[in-house]
Amino acid sequence: MPVPAAAAMPSDPAHAPLTGLQGVGPRVAEKLAARGMATLQDLWLQLPRQYEDRTRLAPIRGLQAGVAAQVEGVVEAVERSFRYRPMLRVAIGDDSNATLVLRFFHFRAAQVAQFAPGVRVRCYGTPRLGQHGLEMVHPSYRIVGDDEAGALGDSLDPVYPAIEGIGPATLRKLIAQALDRLPEADALELLPRDWLDGALPGLREALLTMHRPPQGADVAALIAGTHPAQRRLALEELLAHHLSLRRQRIALQAHAAPVLEGAALAERLRASLPFALTGAQQRVFAQVRDDLGKPVPMLRLVQGDVGSGKTVVAALAAMLAVEDGRQAALMAPTELLAEQHLANLRAWLEPLGVNVAWLAGKVTGRARAAALAQVAEGQAQVVVGTHALMQEGVAFHDLALAIVDEQHRFGVHQRLALRDKGGEGGRVPHQLVMTATPIPRTLAMAAYADLDVSAIDELPPGRTPVQTVVLGAQRRPELIERIRAACAEGRQAYWVCTIIDESEEIVAQAAQSTFELLSKALPELRVGFVHGRMKAGDKQAAMRAFKAGELDLLVATTVIEVGVDVPNASLMIVENAERLGLAQLHQLRGRVGRGSAASSCVLLYQPPLSQMARQRLETMRETSDGFVIAEKDLELRGPGELLGTRQTGLAAFRVADLVRDADLLPLVHDIGERLQREAPDIADRLVERWIGGAARYASA
Ligand code: ADP
Ligand code: MG
Does the pLDDT value for residue 10 go beyond 80? Predict the structure, then answer.
């Protein structure tokens, strides 16, 4: 099958510099370059983030909070105030006999003068619920003459992602100029036409449809992102990302890694454990062992629900490095969690004569110098720590295995930094990445084309499922009795305070008053308190006391979220649970149900519940399967939030949406395979076209 020969000559307009456009002087060029835009092609692919539908007018009465719309009305009242800061409120009304408030915080005197009562205003914005009904804050608007009343535009207005220092109107003009220089269809196309689904348009047509929706275009589809033009571009973008991740993997595998084969030490560890490994733990460890026995770097993600026992698998893997006379490092996202790993590993490994060193931010002065020396000279066989492990000045003697726990808390860059500690002669350590945030299959395929994935999909025996109840906050007093009863039986409980959108300071205050209230209501109990603004040492001390059973009740903010293991805790109460995402609720709930006692989790909410929050709490009540929860989370929130924007750059897709476009992924894989095999130069150019500078950075 011949592939189209798109021109890649220097005269290719795709690579023409933006400085050739009218209005692009050195200053504008610099602002564009800061966003990775240097060529015409970069502007072609600067796709609208959404559209404003100005083809219709919505009656004010029919407006819904959160749903953007265009309305037209007559000014009924204007109010200016300066109480806290300058503010302008303009009330407009229309034939639906309803009123909408437009609210401005920045405005000029001339603007105020425009809004005389009786003047007709057309505006576009997203209404939200204000003090007196719906309002639009800083809508785009224009005054229309009575002769224009109701006369509408006939196409959608694209809205582009903002670029700092370049106004939206200027940006639109620049993109329009770039589009005027779009080459003919055949010159632009990289993908062989008959490899694609016949229903999808060519690249040129797709770009023009997205940037300049023609009259009569399917407005609803464009707004929903399901128009064939958008699908065509999403396909190409997903393909570029897929190819780029595959390349990174191939590049990584070109490095050498130490072959770790001796399993006698791992076997001794296994035999010394107070429990038998689950089938899933054995299977995953076998996969890891297999990888470590090869001379290429392992890059494996181990997914396992909270409490599935990932740590011991990591410890077993570390023994292979130690037996070979090399080092293993285990990095955790919080000091609390790292300290817990340290305690576990010391308890398991020191009896076997393995030296475990500790390196966290709070290790300073002489202790730090001593730890660094041990790491550098190799006496430290296993090193446990936080981000401090990756800092400059930390040199390993011979790092053979880098283990990263709770991977979603770290960005790709941090993971790479630990990898780069392998050093000598281009050798790279094996990497084991562990996460309790299960990643739905579709997402994993797209996000981790560069990783092998294992799942510990079985919990250790004897755990009883956590019973979850959802209650309105007015039921709080009953819970105090419940805590009293649980603790009287020798159990422990968590009370988690959350306030999102507020500063840590305010959360800490709220938690403080809850702590005081509970201490007073439960005088017979030993109540502890941890929050994010405490000194690390105090936090640690409280956690340690709770773990040791010296406290009955722990009042905490979400700092206890990740990985903390106290098997005797069997009751958790989460306040304002409606404000938390599913993944976070699942993590929190995973703190109970780790022992053999029947456990419960009470999710308290402040009514009224939004539709979305209700669905989340329902999901929590119905299932404790991390994978089901992750799928639901993806559905409700989208991939960007699920993985964290730092993670993979997934949130930075220009047009693709992994949930909406999931059905394209099989085709993406097929075409990806085929390109790699039959036309690797085209694969290169696709990656360059869509990812460009970002790809160069990631493979560095
Ligand atoms: P996570 O996967 O959430 O990191 P951990 O590694 O912290 O889970 O393990 C949770 C608890 O289960 C720990 O106390 C650990 O010692 C224990 N554990 C791990 N594997 C088993 C097993 N096979 N049988 C019984 N308990 C286990
Ligand atoms: Mg863990």
Answer: no
CA of 421 to the centre of ligand 1 (A): 29
Looking at the domain 264-456, which fold is it? Rossmann fold (3.40.50)
Q: Which atom of ligand 1 is nearest to the CA of 312?
A: 6
Please give the pLDDT value at position 7: 42
- The distance of Cα 525 from the centroid of its chain, to the nearest Å, equals 39
* Nearest CA residue ID for atom 19, ligand 1: 309
The yes-or-no verdict on residue 305 having pLDDT over 90 is no
Q: 56-152 and 466-623 share one CATH topology? A: no
Counting ligands in written order, the one closest to the CA of 566 is: 1
The response to whether residue 437 sits with its C-beta less than 6 Å from ligand 1 reads no
Q: What is the mean pLDDT of residues 2-13?
A: 54
Q: SS3 for 410?
A: coil
Q: Ligand 2: distance of its center to the CA of 564 in Å?
A: 7
State the chain's maximal CA–CA distance in angstroms.
89
Domain boundaries, the chain: 13-51+159-226, 56-152, 264-456, 466-623
Judged against a pLDDT cut of 80, whether residue 525 lies above it is answered with yes
| Residue 139 preceded by cis peptide, ω within 30 | no
> Can you tell me which atom of ligand 1 is nearest the CA of 306?
3
> Tens digits of per-residue pLDDT, 393-452?
788 999 999 998 876 545 455 555 666 666 556 678 999 988 876 666 656 666 566 678
Sheet order of strands, 87-93 included: 128-130, 133-137, 99-104, 87-93, 69-81, 120-125, 140-143
| Domain covering 56-152 in this structure, CATH number | 2.40.50.140
Distance 357 CA to ligand 1 centre (A): 22
Ligand at minimal distance from the CA of 311 is: 1
Indicate the CATH number for domain 466-623: 3.40.50.300
Q: Of all atoms in ligand 1, which is nearest to the CA of residue 313?
A: 6
CB burial readout 319-344, b (16+ within 10 A) else e: bbbbbbebbbbbbbbbbbbbbbbbeb
Write down the pLDDT at residue 449. 64
Q: Is the CB of 311 under 6 A from ligand 1?
A: yes
